[in-house]
Each structure stands twice: as structure tokens, then as C-alpha cells.
Amino acid sequence: MKKIISTMLAVCFMMISLTALAGDITVLLDGKQLRFDQNPIIENDRTLVPVRKIFEELGADVQWREKDAVVTAKKDDMSIRLQINSNWMLQNGELIYLDAAPKIVGDRTLVPLRAISESFGAAVTWEASSQTVYVTTAGNVPNAPDSETPSTPDTPENTPGDTPSSEENDFEQQVLDLVNQERQKAGLAPLSWNSDLANVARAHSKDMSVRNFMFHTNPDGLSPFDRIKNAGISYRSAAENIAAGQATPQSVMQGWMNSAGHKANILNPDLKEIGVGYFNSTTGYKHYWTQVFIAQ
């Protein structure tokens, strides 16, 4: 299952810029604010930070091999190896797929904070309102504001979804029809509508609007796969497309079909079921869209 999830994470896309400067992001390690000589960046929903600083703060020995652009780090019985511009991390001999590859910015090597921290046993949480990443090592009490709240906070992701309006419902059905038209053109079988998946998709579209974010992973750290699992839906493989700002089913489908990653999900012959969630908001991008696909 780990390999399936890692593979599917590689094909989840969103219709906004995948790379952004994140100079206003704060990183707290066990309550201590880390200072970097190179601003973190956000790529594919992941925060990347200077490698040496985070490794040393986590107590790991780090080495840089310039000839092949490889970073290695060791701590106790954990060893990880990363290569610049490669989405694969070698962790104690096991290949792990990374949503964002290490890269060089300026003269600093940046690595994905969550993957690195969790490899060394730390927990990572994200607070969207303050643009803060909380890294908590083993044996330390989390310092994030939600550390004393229940594990399932009252958010649109884990509360029953509102009944969609007639317009929203109609738009969702139009997207289903358009998806199956594209699949028919490609000689593929149509996708079946899954009402439970639609509820998951609607909740995520609404959540992106209410909490003002535009990521596959929500501010609570839940991925599309977590949301599907939490809804009690079993699957063999899964994928998700999201978008915002497109006012009609036709325009959002055009955008998805003009994007190689989104198109690959829509025309994936292995996927069999779909749920579509559209949320019409008065704020932000105003129109929020989510497609969730599964194969049983």
C-alpha cells in the first residue's frame, strides 16, 4: 500500500503555481524558532528548507557529496540519502517518493521539511493562519496551538457536508458527463459516480474556501488518501484533481485537460469511480472544484 500511495501522490496536481517563495513562513522546532540564511520555499504543497540547518537541529550528521549532488544524513539507526532534483529518498535502503525534490536555491541546498523531520521521528504540523510549521521531536510536548484540541477538530473536512445547492449539484453532474466524454474519445470505459467520494470531494472544496488554502493536503495535514480512508471508503489506488477560480464545468474541465497531470488522472484506465465536489463561495477564488478518483 505504501508504494501505491507514493505512486499516486506523484500524479496529484493542482491548478495554481506549484512553487512559491515562503519567506514569511516560520519554522518552530520544539518551540524554538529556526533562523535560515536562505528563505524556505513551497513546492508541490511542501515546505523546503536549507538542508544543513534542519539536519543539525535534528541531531543528524550531514554530508554533501558535490560530484554527484548527494546529501546523506545519519542519526542513531536512521540513514537517509537524497539527490538534487530527484524525487526519491533512500531511507535505510528503502526508496521513498517525495512530492518535492531537493533543489539548490542560490548557493543553498533545500530539502522537504516534513519528509526529513518524520524520517528522524519528529511530528510535523502546519498552522495556515500564522504560516507556521511546528516540528516536534520525540519526548517533547507539541507546541502547536491545536495540540490541546481533539484529534478530529470541527472543520469542513470531518463534519457532515452541507447538501449541495441545485446549481452545485448540476455542475458536479456536468463535470462527470464531461469526464466521460473525454474518456469515450480516448476509447476508455466511463467512470461510475460514487456518492461517498462526492461527499469527500465537496468537503475538500468547501474546506479550501473556508480556510483559505489551495492544496491537496489540508491544514490539519490530511492528504487525499487520509480523507478517503476517514470516510470509510476502501480502494486499491486513488488520485485527486483540484482547481479554483473557474466559473463553469466547461472551463474547469478545459483547464484540467490542458494540464498533463490532471489529464492523466481523468484518462487513467485503471481508475473506475469518481466523486466531484463543487463549492460556490463569495470569497477567495469563489469557485472551488475537487475530483476524487478510485479503483477498488
From TrEMBL:
Write the signal peptide boundaries. 1-22
Keyword Signal included in the entry's annotation: yes
Q: Where is the SCP domain?
A: 170-291
Q: Which UniProt keywords apply?
A: Signal
CDD domains (UniProt xref): CAP_bacterial
Q: Where is the composition biased (Low complexity)?
A: 145-160
Q: Which superkingdom heads the taxonomic lineage of this protein's source?
A: Bacteria
- Residues forming coiled coils: none
InterPro entries cross-referenced by the UniProt entry: CAP_dom, CAP_sf, Cu_amine_oxidase-like_N, Mao_N_sf
Keyword Signal (UniProt): yes
Pfam families noted in UniProt: CAP, Cu_amine_oxidN1
Residues annotated as region Disordered? 138-171
Name of the protein in question:
SCP domain-containing protein
The organism's lineage is:
Bacteria, Bacillati, Bacillota, Clostridia, Eubacteriales
